[in-house]
Amino acid sequence: MPALETLFETRWLTLQRIGHWDFVRRPHSDSCVGILAITPEKEIVLVEQFRIPVQRHVIEIPAGIVGDEDEHRGESLAETAGRELLEETGYRAGRIEKLMDTPTSAGLTPEFIHLFHATDLVKEHEGGGVAGEDIVVHHVPLADLRGWLRDQQAAGKFVDFKIHACLWLAGL
């Protein structure tokens, strides 16, 4: 097997090469979590953030990097999912169930996303993320989701595919 070369590194990303293939990774973690959160009222809880790489607002499931901050190293994947859900949306999950693990973009990065389904939600605060994050929380009735997402796209926002993947995995 060819050797791993580091071509360039910043605080947040590393560009590496194995043989003829260049790829990126995060220096502190090769894992992230994504959470499909459904309220007792059958609303999906989504988040919206401006994403610099695509220069647009993106509608997403709540998500976060595993172990990227010293105080959270050693958390289980489910603990990380619960913490990220609470930080971003203000909801504490009574139940968190693993849906699947999958590469985020296998040709670009070794990062895996661990998808969870959170239910029995209890609202503790308004959400919005931690310092430096500017997250808008949306509550969308599951029955209206397709139309709502079409409206968001028509307004110029991007819709992350993980929303659809999680709904399918959860049988919704």
Summarize the structure.
It contains 3 helices and 11 strands. The protein is of the alpha+beta class and 172 residues long.
Descriptive account of the structure:
The chain has helices at residues 77-89, 145-154, 162-169; strands at 4-9, 14-18, 21-25, 31-38, 43-51, 56-60, 63-65, 91-103, 112-123, 136-141, 158-159. The protein is an alpha+beta fold and 172 residues long. The protein has one domain (28-169): Nucleoside Triphosphate Pyrophosphohydrolase (Alpha-Beta Complex). The strands form 2 sheets. Strands 4, 5, 6, 7, 8, 9, 10 and 11 form an 8-stranded mixed beta sheet that branches. The radius of gyration is 17 Å and the shape is globular. The relative contact order is 0.21. The mean pLDDT is 95.
For the structure shown, list the relevant keywords.
alpha+beta, Nucleoside Triphosphate Pyrophosphohydrolase, 3-stranded antiparallel sheet
